[in-house]
Amino acid sequence: FHKNKIYIFGGCFGRSLSNDMFVVDVKKRTAIKIKASREQSPTPCARYKHCMVKVAKRECQHKMIGRKRSNRKEDQQVVLVMYGGCSERQAMNDTWVFDPKTQKWTEITNSANLDTVPRRCFAHVMVNISGRLLTHGGTDAWTILQDTYQLDARNCDISKWRW
């Protein structure tokens, strides 16, 4: 929920999965499909039972206006972080960041240390606590998971984010 808007990605409609993104304006009572540019940025595959949380850039830096720091909500940039879910064939363990301002997706990779990447899962929970994203539980389709992982999103350079 950001600026009276709710962002919704993917889902299951009957037997087909979606990777569409919608923004619902709760004040205007409208829903618009966002057409992310696939030429300029990759897009996550279709999925359901995933989690997506908001990360305000104020949690990693303050925007300067003149010589004063701004803490006004309208001056704060926001990104949405999505993790996991289930595709048509398997549980997922990928992490994606969506920037509502540019309407572009970026995949977060942990190429430095694959041992710290959470297991593939869906039907889990994720919460943002002061820029630290915690994910817990879910299932991999065979086992109920009790794992907890943390993604430190306090660094404004998302290429440095690691689980």
From TrEMBL:
It comes from the Eukaryota. Coiled coil: none annotated. InterPro entries: Kelch-typ_b-propeller (IPR015915), Kelch_1 (IPR006652). This is Uncharacterized protein. It comes from Amorphochlora amoebiformis.
